[in-house]
Specification:
Nucleotidyltransferase, domain 5, Alpha-Beta Plaits, 2 domains, 12 helices
Length: about 425
Amino acid sequence: MELVEGVVKEFIRAHRISPVTVFLGVPRNLAVLRYVELPLAVKENLEESVGYQMEKYVPFSIEELYFDCQVIRESKDIGNIRVLLIAVKKTAVEPYLSLADKLGLRLSGIEISSTAVANYVLSLPDLKDEDCCALVYLNEEYFEFGLLRSGFLDYSKRIEGETLKSNPTEVLGRELKNLKAVMGPQDHDLKTLIFGSKADLPPALEEMEGLDIHMRDSSEFGLASPELIPAYGLAAKGIMKLSMKTNILPERFRKRPNRTGQYIMFGLAGLLILSLLAWGGGKIVSGQLYLQRLNTELEQLSVEVAKIEKMKARVSRVADHIDFLNSFYTNDVSVLEVLKELSTRIPKSAWIQRLTFADRELRIDGLASSSSELIPLLDASSIFEDVSFVSSITRDKQGRDRFRIKLKVRDSN
């Protein structure tokens, strides 16, 4: 446990993980697993009802156990329910709880490796609509067999020890036949999924009658080793809705997940899984950190895009100014030249109040001490012609002449 503690601490430190929602897995051989048929009426108070009869199903008192139960099938026509009961002695779980305390973690749940493997299978996209299938998990130390019906683990068995080591092929063949027998008669072959380190099956087993065997490669979901499958199933329980919800950790000990934050889940499933978590879990956490970095980059790019949009608007305004200035040129005659000529020819005693220029015709309205002198001054210009008053001259209250003059701009050609 000290070795495991060091591995997990280093993993948390290396990936800068704060204490978050954690699911812990314990080996299947530490638990007692029973399938119980109960009246439908006890469904509302299932845990309390099972607790009263615990010694009927498990050879220990309820004070010695952590346990949980889940309805996996309901038959309203006959008025009963099928319940999966999982019980683990407190003394068997204490080393794992002690490890969590040393790591400063509050657990959200504890479950056995069998239900974790079932959750892994139930999380596979191509199996979400599968009504019934068998699963076989092959490990170097043990084999686990299960049957999934309507998304629930309806049968579970673990084989380990000398019997397995002496003749694993015989054990596998016998248990595959048992799975077929448990399923009962049906009009199609039972889909059987095999996961684990023993990738090659004898031809006799692959062609077993009544079974549709599929060898599944865990690497298709980024798992470096099949031994990480239970850990994947634990982590999946924290981030998606799965039908297997067993949790032997008492309610009072459970950490309440913060639904406003982002879930970061990793599972611990026994000594071997804990020792490998720094490797397999690192990929999951690295993916989350990479996603966070991408989100940060996207936010920074959004700011840059906003700046570019502002710059585009500014360029558009400058382009409008340029178009406006370009409009000052009619053919080869510059309005600026016309204005310069007017400012030179018109004396300081005169003021232009309004000026219009279109189609080489210029009209000016204004005030002057003596408007009559404007005509010869403008007519003497080299770029003006046909200078004349548009209307009669009037005077304002200060005695200044109010004039309106029109003239044409000569064509330079």
